[in-house]
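Hi P.,

Sorry for the delay on this. The queue was packed all week, but I finally got your sequence through. Input first:
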Amino acid sequence: MKKKKKRNSKTKFQNLSQSVLNVLKQEPNKDFNYKQICAKLSISDASTRNQVIKRLHRLKSKAQIEETGRGKFKIIKAIDYYTGTIDISTRGTGYVITEELQEDIMIPRRSLGQALNGDQVEVYVYHRRRGQQPEGEITKVIERKKTEFVGTIQVHEKFAFVNVTDPKIQTDFFIPGREINGAKDGQVVLVEFVEWNDKQDSPNGKVKSILGEPGEHNTEIHAILAQYGLPYEFPTAVEEYANQLDKTITDQEISKRRDMRESLTYTIDPADAKDFDDALSFEKLENGHYEIGIHIADVSHYVKEGTPLDDEAYERATSVYLVDRVVPMLPEVLSNGVCSLNPHEDKLCFSSVFEMDDSGKVYKQWFGRTIIHSDQRFAYEEAQHIIETGKGEIPAEISLTQKDTTADPAIVEATLTLDSIAKKMRNERMVQGALSFDKTEVKFNLNENSEPVGVYFKTSKDANKLIEEFMLLANRKVAAFIGKRDPKPTFVYRIHDEPNDEKLGALAKIVTRFGHKLDLRDRKHVTQSLNKLLIDVKGNKEQNMVDTLAIRTMSKAEYSTQNIGHYGLAFDYYSHFTSPIRRYPDVMVHRLLQHYLDKGKSVSEELYEEKCHHSTNMEILATKAERDSIKYMQVKFMKDHEDEQFLGVISGVTDWGIYVEIISNKCEGMIRLGDLDDDSYEFVEEEFAVIGRKTKNAYRLGDEVYVKVKNADLVKKHLDFWMIGSKEAVEN
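Then the structure:
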C-alpha cells in the first residue's frame, strides 16, 4: 500500500493543476487569488494551499493563465484550447484527434488528467516550434466514451481496487466497501464508473457484476463481451415478444408478393451454419439467358420499427461471432427459425432478380418481396466438390448427410453455370481495380468443453467466391438502383475511402525487404501492384504478415448516407442488402428499398446518418471482441504446448521487443529485448531489426526463428516467448 500512496500523491498534484484551471475557466471574465481558489476547491491544509500557489505560477509560465494584478489570476481565453477524442496507447501516451488541427495532439502520460481512452476531451496545446508535433494536456473531460470496465478485484478490509484488463486504461478503480457487492479477491468483475473527484488519484466505482474466476473459459468469454459492452443474453421482454410473433404465411401476404416457389432454389452455407439468410434461384430462359435470383430473408416483415424487438436489434446492430459461440442480433426463434431459409419450407424473402448471360452481363433487374421454397441445402464443401469434379456424386466424408449422395442434375448444372459466371464477374472487378484480399482465417477444433485441441486454416475456395460474387452483385445493384435516382433519396451505403498514402509508403518500404515492389504513382498502379503483391506472397513465410499490413493500409469501411463509393471493391455504388439476420444496416436497406418502391418520399438524412454511425461503431466493437476471442483461444492453445519449440516468422520489431508469429498456428507472441541473453540488443528502425552491440547478431522483420512459450497469460490474452535462435542456427 505504501507504493500506492506515493503514486496517489504524485497524481493528486497533477490533477490539482486541472482543478485550478477549471475554477478559472468556469468564470473566465473574473480573476481570483489563491485563497479564493482554495475556498472553491475546499482546500484548507497549508501544504496543499502552497501547492495551489506553485501551480498558479507554473500555469502562468506556460501562458495558460495571466496575472492581472498582484496575486490575482485569470484564464487566458483560448485559441490554444481544442476538443477532440483521446486515443491512449498501451504505454500511456495519449493522442487527441481533433478536426481543428491536421496533426494529432500528443499528450504525455503525466498530462492525461482524468481522461480515459476514447473520451471526448478538451485539451490545451502548448506553444510549439514550427514543424513539431503539437503537445498538450487534458484540461477537461467533456464526455465519457464508456462507463463500464472489466478488471480483477483486489479486496481489502474496508475497500477494494479493480485493476482494469484493458491496457489502454491507465488507472485502477477505488471501490468503497459498500460497493464491492460480494466480489471475492482475485475475481474478474464488471465495474461501473461513478465519479472522479479532483482530490482523488483513482475514480470511484462500484462492482456491477461478478464474471467469475480468472482463466476460466466462460469467465474470459463473458469478460470479452463485457469489455466492449456487448450483451450475451436477450432481455426477457424481447424473447417473449419474439416468441409471440405471428409466423404464419397467409394467402393475403402471398398475394402481395412475387411467387417464386416453382423456381429451382437452393442455399450454400458453412456445414455448421444454423441460419441461412440467402438463397440462389436459377432458371434457363428461351433466349439463352438465365434468370438468377438472390433471395434474402425478409427480416423486416417480422421486425417492425418501434417494437422492443427492433429496438434491441438496433442497439446490437450486428451478430458477434466468437470462437465458441455466436451472440446473435435477433433471438433464435427468428435467426434460426422463421427467418432462416431452411430447405423444403416456404419462406418470405426480399429478392434481387436478374436476367444475365454467360459473361455476367445484366439485361434486366427486378427488386421486391417474394415467397420462395428452397429445394436443397448444400455445404460449401459439397458445392466445391461439384465445381471441381463437374459431377453430382458427393462422398460421405463431405456430405451433410454423412452418406454418399447424388445431387439433382439440375442443381449440378446450375452450380457449374453460376460458378462460371461468378468467375467472369470477379475477373471484371479485378480489371476495374478491385482488391483481392484472401487472408487466411484461423479456426479451432474444440472439444466438448470448448477447449482448443487443434488449429486449422480456412481459405476461400470457388464455392465461397460463387456466393460472394452474387451477394456483391445484389448489394451493388440495389445501391445503384436508389443512388442513381434524381433527386437522390436518403439511403444507407457501405462506403470505403482510398488508402492512407503514408501507410502505403510504409508498406512499400517493408515489402522491399522481401523482394517485392509497390507502384504508388496513381490509383490504378497502386491497385495493380497491391494485387500482384498479394498473389506473390501466397505460400511464402511473409504471407500473413504482408496480408495483415496491407489490410492496415486500407481505410475502414463504414456505413453512411453520403455515398463516396467503395474503393476496395471498385464500385461506385455499394450497400449491404444480403444479411439482415446478422446486420441491422441490411434491415434498414430493406425498409428503405420497399419505401421507395412504394413511391415514398425521401426520409430524414440526419436520422439515418446517426443510425449509420451507430452501426459502424457496433461493428468495430464486435470485430474487436471477435479478435480478442481468437487471441484468447490461441493463448489457451499455446498454454498446453509450453514445452514445445515452434518455428515462427518475426512479424514486428520495436524498441521493447520482437513479435513472432508461429507458422503452424498463426499465434503471435513477444520476446522482450531483455530476455535475449546472448547480447545487449538495440532497435535499429531503418533496418527493421534489433542488433546485438557486441556480436552484431541481428533479428530482422521476416526472419524465421525458433521460439518456446515463456508465459501464456489468459487474462491479458498475451503470449511471451523465449528466443531459441534463428532457423539456420538451430537446424544446423
